[in-house]
Amino acid sequence: MSALPPLDVSNARPVEQLSYEEALNELESVVAALESGEHTLEVSMALYERGQALARYCTSLLEKAELKVRMLTDEGLVEFHTE
Fold first, then answer.
1. Which tens digits make up the pLDDT trace of 44-61?
2. pLDDT value of residue 83
3. Closest to 78 in 3D by CA, of 58, 21, 68
């Protein structure tokens, strides 16, 4: 994995303003920062809270996308075959 930039959750954009890709990338950075064990308890707690918000947001976006696909197909999810 490539080196991740330091995180500053105090100045982070609101989660709702992020695209799915931005939120997922930030979530991966938060997880890496927490796994490093190099932060104070206070910073770790802030990272954890941000990570939870990002995870909920990503899950919500995926659920909305799945619902839209279901609505568009009328019969539920359609399996895609690549050949």
1. 999 999 999 999 999 999
2. 66
3. 68
pTM for the whole structure: 0.76
Neighbours of 47 (CB within 10 A): 18
Task: Give the whole-angstrom CA distance, residue 42 versus residue 50.
Answer: 13
Distance between CA 27 and CA 57 in Å, rounded? 10
DSSP string, 2-70: PPPPPP-GGGPPPGGGS-HHHHHHHHHHHHHHHHHT-S-HHHHHHHHHHHHHHHHHHHHHHHHHHHHHH
Q: Are 19 and 54 in contact (CB under 8 A)?
A: no
Which amino acid appears at position 73 of this protein? T
